[in-house]
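We emphasize that the prediction below concerns an isolated chain of 306 residues; any contacts that depend on oligomerization or on bound cofactors are therefore not represented. The input was used exactly as deposited, without trimming of termini.
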Amino acid sequence: MSEHRIVSLIASATEIVAALGFEDALVGRSHECDYPPSVKRLPMCSGPRIDVEASSREIDRQVKGLLHQALSIYDVRADVLDRLAPTVVVTQTQCEVCAVSLKDVEAAVCRMVGSHPRIVSLEPMALGDLWTDIRLVADALGAPQRADELIGRLDRRLEALTRSAGTVAVRPTIACLEWLDPLMAAGNWVPELVELAGGVDLFGHPGEHSPWMTWEQLRDADPDVIAIMPCGFDIERTRRELPALTGHPAWPRLKAVRNGRVSLTDGNQFFNRPGPRLVESAEILAEILHPGRFDFGHRGTGWRPL
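Result of the prediction step, given as a token string:
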């Protein structure tokens, strides 16, 4: 058994901890941590202040309302944290919409009386930051060699994909949609994944936050391919939100729609999480961009054609 007692307050960090071989040391999780599935047995140390089952537009309204009031979108359950007496708490500073904020974690830890955990804060903005985050977590757990091994395995898979995708004759243009109502393109690491998979991202910029976009921009760019990957939504939830797209007058006139090149992805499990499964996310994009050339077995689980 590990000497550590780890609480992870961000889903991607939970996956990093597990991939490093420390799942048995996890004693608590965020309300969003659900992979590996076995972590769902752990007590939740956070919860949302918004109705996560609301429509895309209503969620957007609630989030913007809380941020406008300088209020947090998530609660940290300080009493649960205190009871669990962690030695390490992993959180993030990348996005206050995606997970609990560092300041809320620090405030909760200050109220704890049973332990004085080390706070490890991750800030993934680009693909290379994933390697940095893996090392930060591994170093905090006293196992830097495990980071070397994990990064080596992930890097080799990405390199193999890049070599194969580098030989494609045509690199399709793609719009990766991270929110549907209003429209938002995927930024951060997603444009890099698109490039590795042999495509051209029309809207996102590597290492930059996801940008809002307009229907006019989508119509004028007219991408060859559209990948729908709303933050926090699985494929079935995304399908329920589709009328926000399909009901717009410009939708049926888009080239990707006319040519049947629109795909639904599990954004929640893959693209939205800067963890080890970004490698699978790149493979999913390769399957979407180059059907018939790439088949990693993700169709039906990681993505489905619309």
